[in-house]
Amino acid sequence: MGLWARITRVFRASTGAALDKIENPELVLQQTIRDMRDRIPELNNSVAQVMATERLLQKNKENLDKQVIDLDSKIKAAVKMGRDDIATAYIGQLQQAQVDAERTSAQLELATAASANALKARDNYVLNMKKRTAEAMQLISAAKQAKLQEQLAQTMEGFNIGDDASTFNEMREKIERRVAAAEAKLQLGTSSVDSQMADIEREAMDIQLQDKLLAYKQQMGLLGAAPATDSKQIAGTSADEAEVLEQVLVNETEDAAGSN
Q1: CB within 8 A of 132, min separation 6: which ones?
Q2: Closest by alpha carbon to 72, among 99, 58, 93?
Q3: Cα–Cα distance for residue pair 189/181, rounded to 1 Å
Q4: Angle, vertex CA 149, rays to CA 22 and CA 144, nearest 5
């Protein structure tokens, strides 16, 4: 292998490798889709020109057919009037019109076929473009997914789970110590002397209320005959409390009598 051939091969290989690195498949596919879409107006213009030619030939064919009919009528009228010279001139025009009509008919057939083929080609192109666009979108999505997976793989390569695991264990131990300390403080607070004294005071208040309730029931005769006690004292209550209780009972009795 010659020196120039080797240099050319190295250059091509280096260029190809560089292009592979800078070439973005996603951008290339997007540009391809744009190029295909940009060709649609050009195709529509070409199809429109072919269809315009077909319609123009159709108009010419119709005009020639009318001209043939008109010349035929004029020839008959001239012959009827004995004007053979005029009839002969009209016959010459009629023959030329018939030739033009036949040629136009042949051109019209070709134009009609060309118009149909152009429409079919345009429709096939649009269909193929839609198919290619769908495939390109799938490829673009796959390219994005591959890019994300590559980034994730690079992240996982530099991720040392052992270091983070030790950090998690250390933080878990600190939190558990704080929780245990908080629970101990709560237990000490609920079992303190002040808490016990508050419980004793609530119990004493309940006993006093029960004693007063029992005194009311004894005074009202709901518990049978009450033991002999001082008239100023009722069920262990003071003289002032007994007077208050007696006054309350009197008022209730008067109210009951008034209501009856």
Answers
A1: 32, 33, 36
A2: 93
A3: 12
A4: 55
Ordered structural domains, the chain, with CATH: 3-159 (1.10.287), 192-259 (no CATH)
Phi-psi region of 26 (alpha: psi -120 to 50; beta: other; left: phi over 0): alpha
Query: Residue 93 CA to chain centroid, in angstroms?
Result: 74
User: Cα 103 to the chain's mean position, in Å?
Assistant: 62
Which pTM does this prediction carry?
A: 0.43
Place of tokens 């005074």: 219
Q: Is the pLDDT of residue 59 over 60?
A: yes
pLDDT in tens, 132-190: 888 888 887 877 777 777 777 776 666 555 555 667 677 788 888 888 888 777 776 66
Give me the residue label for tokens 């004294």.
197
